[in-house]
Sequence to fold (295 residues):
Amino acid sequence: MTPPTAYEFFALGTATTSALSGMLMTEACAGAGVMTVTRWNVTCTFLMHAAVASLIGAWASLNIQSIGLLTLSGLLAITIAAPAYYGSMALLGARPAVLVFSLNAPLTYLVGILLLGERPSLVALAGLVLVLAGIAVATLPGPGRPGIAHSRLWLGVGLGLLAALGQAGGTVAARPAMLAGSDPFAAMAVRFGIAVLPLVLMQMTGLARHFRTTSTTPMPFLYALLGSLIGNGIGMTLLMVALAHAQAGEVATLAATSPILILPMVWVRQRQVPGLVAWLGALVACGGTALVLAR
Fold:
């Protein structure tokens, strides 16, 4: 076993910011609709990273190959996965949606093995199993928890799986570009820049009017803006840095612990005290996280 590095903790930072962002985006979607929030999220994130990359002169760190890989990463993880993820949250709620989305961790391991030749240790794989088991115990509906209508359940799960597949493919596609020395701010600007294009085309062709939702207050936009800053501005930048120094599967597993970190946030925000089973699941997931860190 080798001691954990700061970059694995960066992946845990991504999990923390993703959990908080997920809570904020759920609030935003309730007031403005999934596609509207996606448009706000993607545009704000692109502008933030492009501005920082320009200020620090980070564009020079990119080459043609890296731009191509980051473009593919953006199409998979943002253009496809982001609206699917927010749709899943709107249908299932934050905790179940994040549970389904956490399946991107084993998918990332699998794609990393097949395409990048990564070879995770048995200890790391055991940690992955414990993390997923803990997440399932902590977030799946149980006695006393409100159920979800059958049609909403299947559609929400389907969207969550699509988001997980897109995120896994996007993570693996970005890793070679980050290994080549791409600056994380420039990389994120490319990833979100390509995702802005479909939204611009929707606006130009008039399709966007079908997704507009009026709101009597500015709160949905403020929730989306804050969620973008925390989840994408901070969290995804940490993820890009982690991918440059650690295996994609390990990074994805650590970043997938957000359903556990969301428990105290739900407690504070919604005054819903997680039950004993949820805390037991959190404990199991923490044990798995420790194994991944120790590998």
